[in-house]
Amino acid sequence: MACSIILCTYLGRLDRHRKRSVLQFLYESGLIYKEDTVLDKGSRLLEQRHHIVSLDQADLTEADLSRAFLVGIHLRWINLSKANLRGAFLAEAALAYANVSEADLSGAFVLGTNLKAANLIQANLSGAGLVEANLFGTKLSGADLNAWCELRSPSQQVSKS
User: What's the CATH number where 160 sits?
Assistant: First the structure.
């Protein structure tokens, strides 16, 4: 599911601070969480959550998301190029195929986030914590990689081109 035409058009026209306000509203309203399933101890389905509003392919270029607290957010194929994510906390987020090129993630904490095939070319990751992040196929050429990483899977592959 891609971002609705109206929402994508609206987001593309906003300044960086208003983009943050819209994203914060959608997040705090529970409208953009990752899809997930909640099971009980007997593996019986208790709850199945779906994101209501898709931000897939949305334009959040230059958005100011500094110190944002985003857990379980669903942002595949999103454009976060040149975004300010300094000091942000991203946990269990879905950012596969996202464009995060030239973004500032300095001091950000990224826990268990899916960054598969994301574009982090020339991103600033200085002082960022990448813990159990999926970086398979992630493009990192020109990125400041002075981050601390804890990748639990020995099969993690990162593209430097």
Answer: 2.160.20
Cβ-based neighbours of 142, under 8 Å, separated by 6 or more? 121, 122
Distance CA 32, CA 5 (A): 16
Q: What is the mean pLDDT of each run of 10 residues along the chain (161 residues)?
A: 67 86 80 60 59 76 93 88 96 93 96 95 94 92 82 50 53
Q: How many domains are contained in the chain?
A: 1
Which pTM does this prediction carry? 0.74
**146 is written with which tokens?**
């002075």
Whole-angstrom Cα distance, residue 126 to residue 28?
28
Count the Cβ atoms, other than its own, within 10 Å of residue 44.
Answer: 7
d(CA 93, CA 79): 15
pLDDT tens profile 60-106:
999 999 999 988 888 889 999 999 999 999 999 889 999 999 999 99
Q: Which two tokens stand for residue 149?
A: 């990483």
Query: Domain of 55?
Result: 1-161
Measured distance CA(58)–CA(87) in Å, rounded: 22
